[in-house]
Amino acid sequence: MASNMFLYWGTGSVPCWKAMIALEEKGFGGYPNQLISFDNEENKADYVTKLNPRGQVPAFKDGDIVVNESWAICDYLERRYGNQGTQLIPSDIKEQANVLQRMYEIFNVENTVLKELAYYYMFDTTDENRDETVLKERYEMGRTELLIWEGYMQKMGSGAFIASKTFSMADVYFFPYLAFFVRLGLNLSKFPALSEYYNRVKDRASVKASWPPHWLKEPSKNNFMSHV
Amino acid sequence: MASNMFLYWGTGSVPCWKAMIALEEKGFGGYPNQLISFDNEENKADYVTKLNPRGQVPAFKDGDIVVNESWAICDYLERRYGNQGTQLIPSDIKEQANVLQRMYEIFNVENTVLKELAYYYMFDTTDENRDETVLKERYEMGRTELLIWEGYMQKMGSGAFIASKTFSMADVYFFPYLAFFVRLGLNLSKFPALSEYYNRVKDRASVKASWPPHWLKEPSKNNFMSHV
């Protein structure tokens, strides 16, 4: 029951958003929760570390069961509450295999686009220490990776989702990355199938209900993804 | 059926080993396979990219179903062949939640110990470019991370596994990292519960059958993990 659940989360965190979309899709909208501030390091506060000794969010409990890693929360919710809300892992074996493949293939997006480009080379590197040649390579790597997903979406066809005809766990995992890149300036006109997908999924009830609140209030200070 | 399966794999690859332990545990020992050479870049050969356009291994098919990412292969095998061989995701809700939590918590081992320390700072950094202070920090981070797992194992108790009383998917995911660190010189006497675990699991049939063949033939050229 949602009333036995509790989630600590941070706004704009891709892992938190994944867990929150899954909670909405499984019909737990309105679950008790607390937004914590990364700026004030509230993720290291006692009440968070009591649930997650690593001091990371999402930190989640369902009654006396504690699950913290975002992937584990999503996996747990679908396994325990499979018959409730949206079925996020299809029953059909072929469709299921494709969803599983895309769910974990998202590591490539995480490593190439989010980490190597956005985090390590933009957020964590000062302007003086940024080499134009390396930067171009990372933009190119990011573009190559996103074009792979553009290809998947083109193959799925208009009206479908990233890995199956219906909304699945692969969308729960993929959409928050895509939306983050759009916020950082990604020009979706270069990715027409992803553009159609983005504009459709952003209006989905579970996604709207969990949209990072500070994104609604203030634009991003960064738009470097426009070079991808 | 194992005879419809095919796996391309590389020796000493943690992701490949995970998939191979899962295949053995599910009772598919003897599945058709081909060892590819990373040195000869055989992972970029046509016959691999036909299955996995990314040119990465493991690349796996089961009849006409293709699944490539190691996590996806393990997840697929357990979902499709749940009633066969070892049950890798426990049915009991509490035990299941703990297994899921540890399965994905392994990202911390991957990021902190394997990537930040071993890959980025040892294999990919030349001796001249290595800063002693940073190196000490990374050893310390690696030690802190492995002590978390030492704590989990101590709590599970002697004879148990990393996340449950019986061997689970969390062991399939965790053991190859631990064995790789031991090969790179990790001194297990600093981690007594993990030491007992390592010595027991290394003799498990699925693990022995899939042990990286080149590890048996030649010792590692590196032992930097002894500083952790």
From TrEMBL, chains A, B:
InterPro entries: Glutathione-S-Trfase_C-like, Glutathione-S-Trfase_C_sf, Glutathione_S-Trfase, Glutathione_S-Trfase_N, GST_C, Thioredoxin-like_sf. GO terms for biological process: glutathione metabolic process; L-phenylalanine catabolic process. One of its GO terms (molecular function) is glutathione transferase activity. Residues 3-85 form the GST N-terminal domain. Coiled coil: none annotated. It holds the Pfam family GST_N_3. PROSITE patterns: GST_CTER, GST_NTER. Residues 92-224 form the GST C-terminal domain. GO terms for cellular component: mitochondrion. This is Glutathione S-transferase. It comes from Patella caerulea (Rayed Mediterranean limpet).
